[in-house]
Amino acid sequence: MRSRQAARRIADSAGISPGDTVLEVGTGLGALTRELCGRGARIISVERNGRLYGEASASLHCEGLELRRGDGFAVEDGFDVFVSNLPYSQSRRAVEWLVQRDFARGIVTVQKEFAAKLMEADPRRRRAIGVLAGHCFEMRVLFPVARSCFDPPPRVDSVVVELAKRRTIPGGVVRAVNGIFSYRRKTMRGIMKQFGREGGPGRLDDLSGDEIVGVAAEIAR
Protein backbone atom coordinates (compact mmCIF):
# COMPACT_ATOMS: atom_id res chain seq x y z
CA MET A 1 0.00 0.00 0.00
CA ARG A 2 1.37 3.39 -0.96
CA SER A 3 -1.57 5.68 -0.16
CA ARG A 4 -1.12 7.44 3.17
CA GLN A 5 -4.77 8.52 3.13
CA ALA A 6 -6.02 4.94 2.67
CA ALA A 7 -3.62 3.65 5.35
CA ARG A 8 -4.83 6.28 7.82
CA ARG A 9 -8.46 5.42 7.11
CA ILE A 10 -7.77 1.73 7.75
CA ALA A 11 -5.94 2.52 10.99
CA ASP A 12 -8.75 4.80 12.14
CA SER A 13 -11.26 2.01 11.45
CA ALA A 14 -9.41 -0.32 13.80
CA GLY A 15 -10.66 1.66 16.81
CA ILE A 16 -7.35 1.29 18.63
CA SER A 17 -7.32 2.39 22.28
CA PRO A 18 -4.33 3.19 24.50
CA GLY A 19 -3.15 -0.02 26.12
CA ASP A 20 -4.32 -2.28 23.26
CA THR A 21 -1.99 -4.78 21.67
CA VAL A 22 -2.25 -4.63 17.89
CA LEU A 23 -0.94 -7.39 15.62
CA GLU A 24 -0.14 -6.43 12.04
CA VAL A 25 0.79 -9.28 9.73
CA GLY A 26 2.62 -8.05 6.65
CA THR A 27 4.60 -4.91 7.45
CA GLY A 28 5.63 -4.34 3.84
CA LEU A 29 7.29 -0.93 3.59
CA GLY A 30 5.34 0.29 6.61
CA ALA A 31 2.68 2.59 5.16
CA LEU A 32 -0.01 1.14 7.42
CA THR A 33 2.40 0.55 10.31
CA ARG A 34 3.20 4.26 10.49
CA GLU A 35 -0.49 5.07 10.86
CA LEU A 36 -0.93 2.48 13.61
CA CYS A 37 1.82 4.11 15.66
CA GLY A 38 1.20 7.04 17.98
CA ARG A 39 -2.11 5.73 19.31
CA GLY A 40 -0.84 4.58 22.70
CA ALA A 41 -0.92 0.89 21.76
CA ARG A 42 1.68 -1.84 21.59
CA ILE A 43 2.18 -2.65 17.90
CA ILE A 44 3.61 -6.02 16.87
CA SER A 45 4.29 -5.95 13.13
CA VAL A 46 5.59 -9.09 11.42
CA GLU A 47 7.11 -9.34 7.93
CA ARG A 48 8.23 -12.58 6.26
CA ASN A 49 10.19 -11.03 3.36
CA GLY A 50 13.79 -10.27 4.35
CA ARG A 51 14.24 -7.30 2.03
CA LEU A 52 11.01 -5.63 3.13
CA TYR A 53 11.82 -6.30 6.77
CA GLY A 54 15.22 -4.66 6.35
CA GLU A 55 13.79 -1.57 4.69
CA ALA A 56 11.03 -1.27 7.30
CA SER A 57 13.54 -1.65 10.14
CA ALA A 58 15.63 1.18 8.72
CA SER A 59 12.75 3.60 8.29
CA LEU A 60 10.24 2.82 11.06
CA HIS A 61 11.06 4.20 14.50
CA CYS A 62 8.16 4.86 16.83
CA GLU A 63 7.35 4.22 20.45
CA GLY A 64 5.57 0.94 21.20
CA LEU A 65 6.51 -0.70 17.88
CA GLU A 66 8.03 -4.20 17.75
CA LEU A 67 9.15 -5.20 14.27
CA ARG A 68 9.68 -8.92 13.75
CA ARG A 69 10.78 -11.02 10.81
CA GLY A 70 8.97 -14.31 10.32
CA ASP A 71 5.60 -15.94 9.87
CA GLY A 72 2.91 -13.72 11.37
CA PHE A 73 0.67 -16.73 11.80
CA ALA A 74 3.18 -18.30 14.16
CA VAL A 75 2.89 -15.41 16.65
CA GLU A 76 1.91 -16.66 20.10
CA ASP A 77 1.47 -13.25 21.76
CA GLY A 78 -2.03 -12.27 22.76
CA PHE A 79 -3.55 -9.31 20.93
CA ASP A 80 -6.71 -7.20 20.98
CA VAL A 81 -6.79 -5.93 17.39
CA PHE A 82 -5.65 -7.57 14.17
CA VAL A 83 -4.80 -5.38 11.17
CA SER A 84 -3.50 -6.65 7.87
CA ASN A 85 -2.92 -5.75 4.25
CA LEU A 86 -1.67 -9.19 3.23
CA PRO A 87 -1.10 -10.58 -0.25
CA TYR A 88 -4.51 -11.86 -1.30
CA SER A 89 -3.16 -15.39 -1.67
CA GLN A 90 -2.90 -15.43 2.15
CA SER A 91 -6.48 -14.30 2.89
CA ARG A 92 -7.92 -17.77 3.47
CA ARG A 93 -5.02 -18.75 5.71
CA ALA A 94 -5.48 -15.54 7.70
CA VAL A 95 -9.17 -16.19 8.36
CA GLU A 96 -8.61 -19.84 9.28
CA TRP A 97 -5.94 -18.72 11.77
CA LEU A 98 -8.04 -15.90 13.20
CA VAL A 99 -11.05 -18.12 13.98
CA GLN A 100 -8.74 -20.00 16.36
CA ARG A 101 -7.46 -16.90 18.18
CA ASP A 102 -9.07 -14.93 20.99
CA PHE A 103 -9.17 -11.20 20.18
CA ALA A 104 -11.70 -8.39 19.89
CA ARG A 105 -11.73 -7.22 16.27
CA GLY A 106 -9.87 -7.34 13.00
CA ILE A 107 -9.55 -4.94 10.07
CA VAL A 108 -8.36 -6.68 6.91
CA THR A 109 -7.95 -5.60 3.31
CA VAL A 110 -9.06 -8.38 0.98
CA GLN A 111 -10.11 -8.95 -2.60
CA LYS A 112 -13.74 -7.93 -3.09
CA GLU A 113 -14.55 -11.41 -4.41
CA PHE A 114 -13.11 -13.02 -1.27
CA ALA A 115 -15.20 -10.75 0.95
CA ALA A 116 -18.28 -11.92 -0.95
CA LYS A 117 -17.31 -15.55 -0.24
CA LEU A 118 -17.02 -14.78 3.47
CA MET A 119 -20.53 -13.30 3.56
CA GLU A 120 -22.34 -15.54 1.08
CA ALA A 121 -25.86 -16.28 2.36
CA ASP A 122 -27.02 -18.72 -0.34
CA PRO A 123 -26.44 -22.27 1.02
CA ARG A 124 -25.83 -23.53 -2.52
CA ARG A 125 -22.95 -21.12 -3.07
CA ARG A 126 -21.31 -20.85 0.34
CA ARG A 127 -17.81 -22.17 0.95
CA ALA A 128 -16.15 -23.68 4.00
CA ILE A 129 -14.32 -20.41 4.67
CA GLY A 130 -17.63 -18.53 4.73
CA VAL A 131 -19.14 -20.98 7.21
CA LEU A 132 -16.11 -20.63 9.50
CA ALA A 133 -16.12 -16.84 9.27
CA GLY A 134 -19.88 -16.54 9.75
CA HIS A 135 -19.75 -18.75 12.83
CA CYS A 136 -16.90 -16.85 14.48
CA PHE A 137 -17.33 -13.22 13.37
CA GLU A 138 -19.80 -10.44 12.88
CA MET A 139 -18.65 -9.08 9.51
CA ARG A 140 -19.21 -6.00 7.43
CA VAL A 141 -17.54 -4.31 4.49
CA LEU A 142 -16.35 -0.87 5.59
CA PHE A 143 -15.17 0.73 2.34
CA PRO A 144 -13.47 -0.01 -1.00
CA VAL A 145 -9.80 0.72 -1.61
CA ALA A 146 -8.89 2.04 -5.06
CA ARG A 147 -6.39 0.09 -7.13
CA SER A 148 -4.23 3.21 -7.35
CA CYS A 149 -3.60 2.96 -3.58
CA PHE A 150 -1.27 -0.01 -4.17
CA ASP A 151 2.08 -0.34 -5.88
CA PRO A 152 1.90 -2.15 -8.19
CA PRO A 153 -1.87 -1.70 -8.71
CA PRO A 154 -3.73 -5.03 -8.47
CA ARG A 155 -5.98 -6.28 -11.25
CA VAL A 156 -8.82 -6.89 -8.81
CA ASP A 157 -11.03 -4.71 -6.62
CA SER A 158 -10.24 -4.45 -2.91
CA VAL A 159 -12.34 -3.77 0.19
CA VAL A 160 -11.68 -3.34 3.89
CA VAL A 161 -13.62 -5.78 6.08
CA GLU A 162 -14.28 -5.57 9.80
CA LEU A 163 -14.27 -8.83 11.76
CA ALA A 164 -15.81 -8.57 15.24
CA LYS A 165 -15.05 -11.76 17.15
CA ARG A 166 -18.05 -13.77 18.39
CA ARG A 167 -16.45 -17.07 19.32
CA THR A 168 -13.29 -19.13 18.87
CA ILE A 169 -13.02 -22.67 17.51
CA PRO A 170 -10.09 -25.10 17.57
CA GLY A 171 -8.01 -26.16 14.59
CA GLY A 172 -9.55 -29.63 14.53
CA VAL A 173 -12.97 -28.13 13.83
CA VAL A 174 -11.52 -25.92 11.08
CA ARG A 175 -10.06 -29.00 9.39
CA ALA A 176 -13.31 -30.91 9.81
CA VAL A 177 -15.37 -28.14 8.18
CA ASN A 178 -12.98 -28.15 5.22
CA GLY A 179 -13.27 -31.93 5.08
CA ILE A 180 -17.06 -31.81 5.09
CA PHE A 181 -17.08 -29.41 2.15
CA SER A 182 -14.80 -31.69 0.14
CA TYR A 183 -17.75 -34.14 0.08
CA ARG A 184 -20.53 -31.58 -0.34
CA ARG A 185 -22.13 -33.42 -3.30
CA LYS A 186 -22.92 -36.38 -1.06
CA THR A 187 -25.88 -36.68 1.31
CA MET A 188 -25.26 -36.02 4.99
CA ARG A 189 -25.39 -39.77 5.55
CA GLY A 190 -22.67 -40.20 2.92
CA ILE A 191 -20.57 -37.35 4.30
CA MET A 192 -20.63 -38.71 7.84
CA LYS A 193 -19.77 -42.18 6.55
CA GLN A 194 -16.48 -40.73 5.22
CA PHE A 195 -15.58 -39.90 8.81
CA GLY A 196 -16.78 -43.16 10.31
CA ARG A 197 -19.92 -41.57 11.80
CA GLU A 198 -23.63 -42.08 11.41
CA GLY A 199 -25.49 -39.32 9.59
CA GLY A 200 -29.11 -38.39 9.10
CA PRO A 201 -31.09 -37.60 5.95
CA GLY A 202 -30.73 -34.48 3.84
CA ARG A 203 -27.83 -32.64 2.29
CA LEU A 204 -25.23 -30.14 3.43
CA ASP A 205 -27.21 -27.26 1.91
CA ASP A 206 -30.08 -28.05 4.31
CA LEU A 207 -27.96 -27.10 7.33
CA SER A 208 -27.21 -23.65 8.71
CA GLY A 209 -23.59 -22.58 9.08
CA ASP A 210 -23.72 -23.07 12.85
CA GLU A 211 -25.16 -26.56 12.37
CA ILE A 212 -22.31 -27.43 10.00
CA VAL A 213 -19.78 -26.30 12.61
CA GLY A 214 -21.62 -28.42 15.16
CA VAL A 215 -21.29 -31.48 12.92
CA ALA A 216 -17.59 -30.67 12.42
CA ALA A 217 -17.10 -30.44 16.18
CA GLU A 218 -18.62 -33.91 16.54
CA ILE A 219 -16.27 -35.25 13.86
CA ALA A 220 -13.26 -33.58 15.50
CA ARG A 221 -13.87 -35.18 18.91
UniProtKB/TrEMBL annotation:
InterPro entries: KsgA/Erm (IPR001737), rRNA_Ade_methylase_Trfase_N (IPR020598), SAM-dependent_MTases_sf (IPR029063). The keyword Transferase applies. It comes from Cenarchaeum symbiosum (strain A). GO terms for molecular function: RNA binding; rRNA (adenine-N6,N6-)-dimethyltransferase activity. SUPFAM superfamilies: S-adenosyl-L-methionine-dependent methyltransferases (SSF53335). S-adenosyl-L-methionine binds at residues 1, 26, 47, 71, 85. SMART domains: rADc. It is an enzyme of class 2 (transferase). Residues 6-167 form the Ribosomal RNA adenine methylase transferase N-terminal domain. Belongs to the class I-like SAM-binding methyltransferase superfamily. rRNA adenine N(6)-methyltransferase family. It holds the Pfam family RrnaAD. Its EC number is 2.1.1.-. This is Dimethyladenosine transferase (rRNA methylation). PROSITE patterns: SAM_RNA_A_N6_MT. Keywords: Methyltransferase, RNA-binding, S-adenosyl-L-methionine, Transferase.
